[in-house]
Amino acid sequence: MELMFNEDGYLIPPLGSSHIFPNPREASDEGLLAYGGDLNPNRLLSAYKNGIFPWYSKDDPILWWSPNPRLLIYPESFKMSKSFKRILRNGNYSVKFDCNFAKVIDYCSEVPREGQDGTWITDEIKEAYIELHNMGFAHSVEAYDGDELIGGLYGISIGKAFCGESMFSLKANGSKIALKGLADILFEEAYYFIDCQLPTDHLISLGGEVLERNIFLDELEDSLLAGSNIGSWSDYKWNYNKNKG
Predict the structure, then answer these.
(1) DSSP three-state, residue 235
(2) Which run of H or of E encompasses 143?
């Protein structure tokens, strides 16, 4: 296997059969800290518990990341503009959970995003996360206008942290409505934060906070000690008017 180096010129170690990762606190700011291995659910859960996630292209080996800084959204701090509140008040929007995980991850891989060519959500990724969904760790969040699916997202729940992976919109504000519904439900369930991985202007405008990686990892460790919501989330329902915004 070809040797790999990070942005600082240090050798990136390949992963073996164990599910032990290098210490993410010692990774470069870019965040690439290991490559190889597989997407076994136990390895994936070990990665998320250590603030690490896979992100790679179809023809690359599996790349494992823990970038610095990190973007978190605290459920109680989700920001809504006046225009977004007006959109919610005047619509018939609802958010459901785990109704069709496979469809959500398919849309996340297929719906074009501005500034992005192609997708990192390969068939291998889909199979792995569908397995985590069947185990009760991966969840889909689906936004509806009446009975029409208009957007959504999926991610991993570990402890009292939700690790967001990808979003899609079929209509304007679809993913934003899904994220608002998720934030409200996670607030009710006493979750610590939504990990959005990489900072973007859009997520910062919704209340995302940029934290140094070590602070994020400290908060993640605390969240893992606070219980967990493993299993189907299909009983969760959200409606803006009923939840009073």
Answers:
(1) coil
(2) strand 138-145
**Given 3-state DSSP classes, what are the helix, strand and coil percentages for the chain, each rounded to the nearest 5?**
35, 25, 40
DSSP 175-221: HHHHHHHHHHHHHHTT--EEEEES--HHHHHTT-EEE-HHHHHHHHH
Task: Give the integer Cα–Cα distance in Å for 33 and 66.
Answer: 7
Residues in the chain, how many?
Answer: 245
Give exposure, 125-157, as e/b (b: 16+ Cβ within 10 Å): bbebbeebbeeebbbbbbbbbeeebbbbbbbbb
Farthest CA pair distance, the chain: 56
CATH node for 4-68: 3.30.70.3550
Q: Could you tell me which residues come within 8 angstroms of residue 198 by beta carbon, excluding any fewer than 6 positions away?
A: 67, 71
Q: What is the DSSP letter of 5?
A: E
* Domain residue limits, the chain: 4-68, 71-243
Cis preceding linkage at 69, omega within 30? yes
pLDDT digits (tens, 9 = 90+) for 108-153: 999 866 555 546 899 999 999 999 999 999 999 999 999 999 999 9
CATH dotted code for 71-243:
3.40.630.70
Instruction: State both tokens at 239.
Output: 């409606």
User: pTM of this prediction?
Assistant: 0.93
Quickly list DSSP for 7-69. TTSPEEPEE-SS-----GGGS-SS-EEEEE----HHHHHHHHHTT-EE---TTSPPEEE--SS
